[in-house]
Specification:
The complex is a heterotetramer of chains A (434), B (248), C (558) and D (411).
Chain A: H1 2-24, E1 33-39, H2 47-66, E2 74-80, H3 86-99, E3 104-107, H4 111-124, E4 128-130, E5 143-145, H5 154-164, E6 169-175, H6 178-193, E7 201-206, H7 214-223, E8 230-235, H8 241-250, E9 260-262, H9 267-270, E10 282-285, H10 294-307, H11 316-335, H12 340-346, E11 351-353, E12 359-361, E13 369-370, E14 373-377, E15 383-388, E16 393-394, E17 408-411, E18 418-422, E19 427-428
Parallel strand pairs in A: 1-2, 1-3, 3-4, 4-5, 6-7, 6-8, 8-9, 9-10
Antiparallel strand pairs in A: 10-14, 11-12, 13-16, 14-15, 17-18, 18-19
Chain C: H1 20-37, H2 45-57, H3 61-73, H4 80-87, E1 91-94, E2 100-106, E3 109-113, E4 120-125, E5 129-131, H5 136-149, H6 156-168, H7 174-184, H8 188-204, H9 209-222, H10 225-237, H11 240-289, H12 297-318, H13 326-348, H14 357-379, E6 395-398, E7 401-404, H15 405-427, H16 429-439, H17 441-446, H18 451-473, H19 485-498, H20 503-543
Antiparallel strand pairs in C: 1-2, 1-5, 2-3, 3-4, 6-7
Helix pairs in contact in C: 1-4, 2-3, 3-5, 4-5, 5-6, 6-8, 7-8, 8-9, 9-10, 9-11, 10-11, 11-15, 11-18, 11-19, 11-20, 12-13, 12-14, 12-18, 13-18, 15-16, 15-18, 16-18, 19-20
Chain D: H1 2-9, H2 13-34, H3 46-69, H4 79-98, H5 111-115, H6 131-155, H7 160-179, E1 191-192, E2 196-197, E3 200-201, H8 205-231, H9 233-243, H10 245-250, H11 255-281, E4 283-284, H12 291-304, H13 310-329, H14 334-348, H15 352-375, H16 385-388
Antiparallel strand pairs in D: 1-4, 2-3
Helix pairs in contact in D: 2-8, 3-8, 3-11, 3-12, 3-13, 4-6, 4-11, 6-11, 8-9, 8-11, 9-11, 12-13, 12-15, 13-15
The chains are: A alpha/beta (434), B alpha/beta (248), C mainly alpha (558), D mainly alpha (411).
């Protein structure tokens, strides 16, 4: 009887203890360092996009250490793998903050992963830098959004098509999840405000990883044969893009006839594709690898040296991490501490050079200023900028084109310190019914 | 033929699998209280006939009646078993990961729905019956052994014990003595005759020694139909039967 | 503006209907010949150079467009070279002196050539030159301009291409040029195209109403999407009898096109079915015949796709001429690679698990995780580029049915694999042994069949076929470590739906699910369509618990 | 009567031990977390509470699978669906509790509905502002789905591979459906940003400890109920159905009803596990329906040892602890480790950890018997009921395609 008891007691506790011990071990460092958490999926469906960002963070931290570290200490990256599993993101975030005691976390790609870790950052009061373009409609005290809000990507792209290409008829094609849904809602409202008729907008959603695009591409072709210039605004995500573009190419849809502008297709995605049939299709980002500035050239060279791969591409979310990391470094130096509260206060207004030759600044709404570039896909898989905003665009967290969010603003400076301040009622907290 | 007075009544039954006729216009009648031995070469349709009677296989055509009035083709296995038809399989089929005792507990007749089973407690009457059956089948010392660990012969006995526990009106017994010693075979014959005092039985067996021991009417099946019927001596002297068994 | 083109001497041009890039490549090539061997009766070369030099000063696309128009207006055939180069993004100007050149990248430098004569003009580092930017709108203008210039080409295909371009972008001024071309035309099919192009131009001209009515008839007779597009656009602005005629034509074309659309749907369904068949057919062996619940099946497909990638990579770097053969070379290699991995899995793991099929599920799931991560470690997590050979690119039309070459080849290929497999299973002694082992292992082994080897080779065959499928699927899908995951569930659905252990069931299952999916998609949308198919499979299994082509009889029921 | 049987008979010590340990954990861990100061060696950090609380929910899920797979031979590849449905029911309650504290301050509509421009609450969200209603739905929705699905499937005698594949199809269809934003469950993002549960802040330490305790108690109850079921006559019937389904029919049992009951009870347990899981991880989204997740549950159960009640719990705890450790310490390698574990367990531990332990104990008992036999005494090695009940691998219908079993090294 005793034997049974102790053995099974051990089993039950062993798992708990194993977890505790295991997670505590990485803390054995020789000298005192400042730890930086890297929370990107290295396996599962999102690894395809996120792995590069992990490498970027390692690169940035190494570069910073070469410059002497931060506050006289070396930086140390703590890499974990949330494995494209959303609850695991929350668990790993908690582990990074509570167990590894990191000073800041750089991570997440999908909106759902960010949503999943939000409560953790709020509860444990740490900071997250989120580098990917997203649907907006959020501003949280502990999160800094270094990717594009819809007004920094989608709306300028539509403007370009309307003005430069004379597009009158629109296909909004997206993967069925929140970012495309919200972006398309915003675009629809925007297009209608510009006088586009309802029947000139076609909205289509497909599941994640959709691979058979024959019907939809034909639908697009048919929709485009109504005698008006037609364009496709694509919020198709991830893996579904390659078969989509292959089908476009094979069905002979040329950019001159029906251009496709995409918000989720960057240099990394195009690397898996023969782009010759796609020349002229468009993407809208805040950075292209082809951007011809000294900062960018230096960055690409250093990055290739770091990865020991002279063909390694760069992309927009990488630049977002570069900006975010430099902002954090500057804010920590300004505050003289890595304490999150101090950093959250000091980072607002911090400006750092971005790779497109301007200075990006952190705004009080925790979004940053960025230029918007429209690029055409080239035969070598690069984008060529065909249009860019004359100045920098401030990320608009609450879209002006959604009825419930147009009165909201975010301003994290004292005394307002509110992520959803309603300018109509003058109260913090959305509609402010209470 | 009249159905009344019969325990089992098959008329013109046919069934085909992918074009192969396993049973071909088979007619067979068993009176109440009768024991019948069925012989026939492999593929004669013996097991398929049992499948039809117990509801496992639906006949393509023909009538199958139990107890003179119940149309068995309209019922499934569980209903047919509840009406009182028990079956022992050719390959002894017992619950391997249960003890001998538990095998019998599951077979005892009684309510067959979920909740009684969930809250079932063994009554003194049931305990007595289990003891009886263990005695009859000589498995008393194996009561707590896993059925998987029984010898082939013991499994045969256990399955017969399960039949007894089920207490059906009609027993279908498929090759009960395969793998038994001579002494056990004789014992089985005696037991079946004993059971026949109160139950109707159909026995399928190849062992002619055993069939002779039973001393009952014999039906020989061939290619899904009755080839010959009568006493064992009559059947075994039938030329067609000899041809089937020896000729080809 | 394209009208003056007619007065140009005939150009020696060969235009293929395919890629634009090819068109331009040919253009440049023949033009270079032209420049050398003919003396163009052209505007003054110096004048041309003066216009071309304006490119350097053009600050935006509108300015560049103006220069393009100016060049086109000279109607000098010599302008085609710089225009083609511009469309290709190969026109540069030197920062130091604003001289315009055609440039080709060569490492860190740009090789320059004269825009008119293509004479070599040295090299400049990238930083010293500026590319003259081009966008879709510009490319469209250039395409229209070049289209007009090729109307008089001696090559029939070039004339057809020109007529097609003019058809899509009607300009009133074209009518005259087209009339002249029609008068000269001797080939019937080309003449037809020219007349159609004329009709579209007539609509936008100020010719009398009866001519326009005739034009509407001509366009309605074409019946294509482009024609419909043209008439629909015209209809909105038309008035009176013309509007009625256009509306009637649009209505009748729409109903014809609807018929074509359902035919198109059937084709898409078959094509989707062929993909499902390819994905599932290896599983029909490992799962259907052997009873191994092979969750690593998708990874075998993935290995096949990666083999294709490696083969193409080697060909690209070492034997570029063989690129069109890359798939043919990859096929046997993919079969061997996946087959070998399958063999190793069978020998190392699965042979210990026969009779415990549920355990094979767990073990092969583990194997699939390992294979995925291994590929991720070796090739990286991102998509790898696998190109389409030229014979698999593009599409052709049967009536209004658009058939892409890659889908057609995949359909043919899937059927070929299927019948080859059927032959192996039914007609060869190996197939006989395989079936014998499946039916009764003990009996087979006592008859002298070496069952372990038959098992191993059967599993390797199933895996190898999955690898072959990977070669085909690399043509339409991502080549990434997640490739296999996308197909595994669908594959199991197909095999189970068709009936385990029956190859014909897999064939029928794949095609019926494909067609069903494609017919649901237009009504329910892609997501809901897929859900409905799954629900239908679940309900179907209730009706036929052992699939479409179930084996019957006693032996089946364990 | 029931409890009398449980404590008097002492029929399986390890069940008793497991329940005692779980109840003890439910009391001790929250105390060590809340009452012991953070510096103390006995302090359990909140991080561990949340983590182990999550594992306990997984353990309950694995236990529910064990009831159908281990005891009844139904390999469900869709158990994650029941878990997720329970989680969604709880998530809907938590969403309604946010009230006007959402970012848009809309008192009725959850945020995701506001920014997708929904004007009113869909009908299926009614009632979820009441905890009792949500709690009822947590059990009712998965239970009902299992009942309907099982009624169709078992009545039509869909068994073996076919059943496994259609359960997979079921969870896959639900995955796709819940991804759709039009469904009204938040699409890919799911439900998140929870504030209160029963008026307590979900992020507070005490609430988290309470949820941990609730999970431990729920698991203890799950163990107890499962034990009651499998040790009753019905439990014997379950195993009989696993061994030879058609034989039970010829004895007059309705095998389909037996399976249906077990499947439904199991789905309800999975639903409860999901409901406890959601407030602890703070999010529920369609990812939980992923067929891969359900397969992982099967793996936990197999690692611990199916048909053993405590086995799946041990498996779930160990595998998840391993996953937590590997994804932190060796992120590049953890899929190799996980994959390798599956292969190793199936090859070398076909009966799981608990099965291995039983084997070892039986072997020891066997030695004692032979020693005793030589000494002339008679010791009856009563086989442990639950552990050994497993010994025949649940082949049944499965074994058909490949014929007789081949050599199995681990046996």
């Amino acid at each position: 009887m005793r034997g049974t008891f102790s053995t099974f007691g051990k089993f039950l506790f062993a798992s708990a203890v194993a977890a505790g011990l295991g997670l505590a071990t990485p803390a054995l460092a020789q000298e005192e360092t400042i730890k930086v958490g890297v929370l990107h999926s290295l396996s599962g469906t999102m690894a395809i996009s996120e792995t590069t960002l992990k490498d970027t963070m390692l690169f940035l931290i190494e570069e910073q250490n070469k410059k002497g570290g931060l506050l006289g200490k070396k930086l140390e990256a703590v890499v974990v793998d949330p494995a494209s599993d959303w609850p695991l993101f929350a668990e790993k975030a908690r582990e990074l903050i509570a167990v590894d005691k990191v000073s800041a976390v750089f991570g997440c790609w999908t909106s759902v992963s960010r949503k999943s870790v939000l409560p953790v950052f709020e509860e444990l009061n740490s900071v997250l830098f989120y580098p990917v373009q997203y649907e907006g409609e959020e501003s949280q005290r502990n999160v800094f959004y270094t990717g594009a809000a819809p007004n920094q990507q989608a709306i300028p792209a539509v403007d370009y098509l309307m003005n430069e290409e004379g597009v009158e008829r629109w296909v909004l094609a997206g993967t069925d999840y929140v970012y495309p849904q919200t972006t398309n809602k915003i675009l629809q409202a925007y297009l209608e405000s510009k006088g586009v008729a309802k029947e000139d907008i076609m909205i289509n959603y497909t599941p994640f990883g959709h691979s058979d695009w024959q019907t939809i591409v034909t639908d697009i072709k048919n929709f485009g044969s109504a005698g008006k210039k037609t364009a496709v605004v694509s919020t198709i995500n991830g893996d579904a893009n390659v078969p989509f573009y292959k089908e476009l190419g094979n069905q002979g849809i040329k950019a001159e006839d029906i251009p496709v502008v995409a918000f989720s297709v960057g240099e990394e995605e195009l690397a898996g594709l023969d782009t010759a049939p796609l020349v002229g299709h468009l993407t809208a980002w805040n950075y292209f690898q082809s951007v011809d500035t000294p900062e960018n050239t230096a960055f690409i060279d250093a990055w290739r040296a770091f990865t020991k791969n002279d063909k390694r591409v760069t992309n927009d979310p990488m630049e977002a991490h570069v900006i975010g990391f430099n902002m954090w470094v500057k804010a920590v130096e300004k505050a003289g501490t890595t304490d999150p509260d101090a950093v959250i206060d000091s980072i607002i207004g911090v400006s750092v050079p971005n790779l497109t030759g301007d200075l990006s600044s952190m705004m009080p709404n925790h979004h940053i200023t960025k230029p918007v570039l429209i690029g055409e896909i080239q035969a070598d898989g690069q984008m060529e900028t065909v249009w860019e905003t004359s100045g920098l665009v401030v990320g608009d967290e609450w879209s002006d084109y959604l009825p419930d969010s147009k009165d909201l603003i975010a301003d994290w400076r004292a005394p307002l310190s509110c992520g959803n301040f309603n300018v109509a009622t003058g109260k913090c907290g959305g509609k402010g019914i209470n | 033929m009249s159905k009344s007075g019969t325990i089992l009544y098959l008329d013109g039954v046919s069934v085909a699998f992918d074009g192969f006729r396993a049973i071909n216009k088979l007619s067979l009648v068993l009176d109440r209280g009768e024991m019948r031995a069925i012989i026939g070469p492999n593929g004669a349709g013996k097991t398929t006939m049992m499948d039809i009677v117990t509801g496992k296989t639906r006949p393509d055509e023909g009538e199958v009646f139990f107890d003179g009035q119940v149309d068995l083709t309209r019922h499934d296995e569980a209903e047919i078993a509840m009406m009182g038809i028990g079956r022992k399989f050719q390959k002894p089929t017992v619950f391997d990961s249960h003890t001998v005792e538990d095998n019998l507990v599951l077979s005892l007749n009684g309510p067959r729905s979920i909740f009684p089973a969930l809250f079932h407690r063994r009554s003194a009457e049931e305990a007595r019956r289990i003891d009886d059956i263990l005695g009859v089948t000589r498995l008393g010392d194996k009561r707590g052994a896993l059925a998987a660990n029984l010898s082939h012969g013991q499994k045969q006995w256990l399955e017969i014990g399960m039949l007894l526990a089920q207490d059906p009106k009609l027993l279908l017994v498929d090759e009960p003595v395969a793998g038994m010693t001579d002494a056990e075979t004789e014992e089985t014959a005696r037991l079946l005759k004993d059971i026949n005092q109160t139950h109707s039985i159909i026995v399928v067996e190849h062992d002619m020694h055993f069939v002779r021991e039973l001393g009952v009417k014999v039906t020989c099946l061939h290619e899904g139909a009755v080839l010959s019927e009568g006493t064992l001596d009559f059947v075994s002297s039938d030329e067609r039967v000899m041809e089937v068994y020896l000729g080809r | 503006m394209i009208l003056p083109a007619l007065r140009c001497p005939p150009l020696i041009l060969s235009l293929s209907k395919g890629h634009k890039s090819a068109v331009f490549a040919f253009l440049s090539f023949f033009l270079s010949l032209l420049v050398v061997f003919t003396s163009p009766a052209s505007a003054d070369e110096a004048a041309l150079r003066a216009i071309i030099a304006k490119f350097a000063a053009a600050q935006n696309f509108k300015a560049t467009e103006a220069v393009v128009q100016e060049l086109a207006a000279t109607s000098d055939p010599a302008v085609e070279r710089p225009l083609a180069a511009l469309a290709e993004g190969d026109l540069y100007f030197r920062k130091s002196d604003s001289a315009v050149f055609i440039g080709k990248e060569a490492g860190q430098a740009i090789k320059l050539a004269d825009p008119l004569t293509s004479a070599e003009a040295g090299e400049e580092p990238k930083a010293a030159v500026t590319k003259i930017k081009v966008n879709n709108a510009l490319r469209r203008s250039i395409r229209d301009a070049l289209g007009g210039l090729t109307l008089g080409s001696p090559d029939a295909n070039a004339r057809i291409a020109a007529a097609d371009t003019m058809f899509k972008t009607p300009v009133a001024a074209n009518v005259e040029a087209l009339d002249a071309a029609i008068a000269k035309e001797t080939i019937g099919s080309v003449k037809l195209k020219l007349e159609q192009a004329r009709a579209s131009s007539v609509l936008v001209s100020d010719l009398p109403e009866d001519e326009k009515l005739a034009a509407i008839d001509v366009i309605a007779g074409i019946g294509s999407r482009d024609a419909l597009s043209l008439l629909t656009g015209y209809e909105t602005g038309a008035e009176g009898a013309l509007k009625d005629a256009a509306s009637a034509a649009v209505a009748s074309m729409n109903s014809t096109l609807a018929l074509w659309a359902s035919a198109q749907n059937v084709w898409y369904g078959l094509s989707l079915g062929s993909v499902l068949l390819l994905a599932a057919i290896g599983l029909a062996i490992t799962f259907g015949v052997m009873g191994v619940i092979n969750m690593a099946h998708g990874e075998m497909v993935m290995l096949g796709a990666y083999t294709t990638f490696i083969v193409q990579n080697i060909i690209r770097t070492s034997f570029p001429g063989l690129f069109d053969w890359s798939l043919a070379i990859a096929l046997p290699l993919a079969f061997l690679v996946s087959g070998a991995v399958g063999l190793a899995i069978e020998r190392g793991i699965i042979r210990f698990l026969y009779g415990r099929p549920l355990e094979t599920l767990l073990a092969t799931w583990g194997v699939s995780l390992i294979l995925q991560q291994a590929v991720r470690s070796i090739f990286g997590p991102t998509n790898r580029e696998v190109g389409n050979p030229s014979w698999m690119s593009g599409a052709f039309d049967i009536g209004e049915l658009s058939v892409t070459w890659n889908r057609l080849w995949i359909l043919a290929f899937s059927l070929a694999v299927f019948f080859l497999l059927l032959f192996v299973m039914k007609r060869t002694s190996w197939g006989l042994q395989m079936r014998a082992v499946t039916a009764n292992r003990r009996m087979a082994s006592s008859m002298g069949i070496r069952t372990p080897w038959v098992d191993a080779l059967t599993f390797a065959l199933g895996s190898g076929i999955a690898g072959i499928a990977g070669v085909a699927l690399s043509q339409i899908d991502n080549v990434s470590p997640n490739l296999g995951q996308g197909y595994i569930i669908d594959s199991f659905m197909v095999v189970v739906f068709g009936g385990v252990g029956n190859l014909w069931g897999t064939l029928v299952g794949a095609f019926s699910l494909g067609v069903l999916n494609k017919f649901l998609e237009p009504y329910a949308g892609a997501v809901l369509g897929k859900i409905l198919v799954l629900v239908l499979i679940i309900l179907f299994i209730q009706k036929r618990p052992r699939g479409l082509f179930a084996l019957k009889g006693r032996a089946v029921e364990a | 009567m029931i409890s009398g049987k449980f404590f008097a008979a002492g029929s399986d010590r390890r069940i008793f031990v497991a329940i005692v340990l779980l109840v003890a954990a439910a009391i001790v861990v929250p105390v060590l977390n809340v009452a012991v100061p953070a510096g103390s060696a006995f302090h359990v950090p909140p991080y561990m509470v949340a983590l182990v609380g999550k594992y306990l929910c997984y353990a309950l899920l694995a236990l529910s699978l064990d009831l159908v797979w281990g005891y009844c031979g139904i390999l469900s590849l869709g158990h994650g669906a029941f878990f997720a449905l329970g989680g969604y029911a709880m998530g809907m309650y938590l969403m309604r509790q946010i009230g006007s504290r959402g970012v848009y301050g809309n008192p009725d509509l959850p945020d995701f509905m506001v920014f997708l421009n929904w004007k009113e609450l869909p009908w299926f969200w009614y009632g979820f502002d009441q905890f009792w209603f949500a709690a009822l739905m947590v059990m009712l929705v998965p239970g009902l789905l299992a009942l309907v699905f099982g009624w169709f499937a078992f009545r039509s005698r869909v068994t073996g591979v076919y059943l496994s594949i259609i359960t997979q199809a079921m969870t896959y269809a639900l995955l796709l459906a819940f991804f759709r934003n039009d469904m009204g469950f938040g699409g890919n993002n799911g439900l998140t940003d929870f504030k209160d549960i029963l008026g307590f802040n979900v992020q507070a330490n005490a609430t988290r400890s309470a949820l941990f305790a609730a999970s431990a108690i729920a698991l203890a109850l799950g163990v107890f109920v499962t034990w009651l079921i499998v040790s009753s006559k019905f439990g014997k019937l379950l195993i009989a159905v696993r061994n030879a389904e058609s034989r039970t029919r010829f004895l007059g049992w309705r095998a389909e009803n037996v399976k249906l009951f077990a499947f439904t009870v199991s789905a309800v347990m999975a639903g409860i596990a999901g409901a406890l899981y959601v407030p602890q991880v703070g999010i529920i989204n369609p990812g939980e329906f992923d067929p891969g997740n359900s397969i992982e549950v099967v793996v936990w159960t197999a690692v611990g040892g199916r048909g053993t009640i405590v086995g799946p719990i041990i498996g779930a705890l160990l595998v998840n602890a391993g996953k937590s450790w590997f994804t932190g310490a060796l992120p590049e390698l953890w899929l190799f480790a996980l994959g390798g574990l599956f292969v190793a367990v199936t090859l070398f531990l076909p009966k799981g950890i608990v099965g291995l332990w039983d084997q070892w104990r039986d072997a020891r008992a066997q030695r004692q018997v032979s020693v005793a036999a030589e000494a002339g005494t008679d010791i009856d090695p009563t086989p442990p009921k639950i552990g050994r009940a497993q010994s025949g691998a649940p082949t049944g219908e499965w074994a058909k395609p490949s014929g007789g079993p081949e050599p199995q090294p681990a046996e």
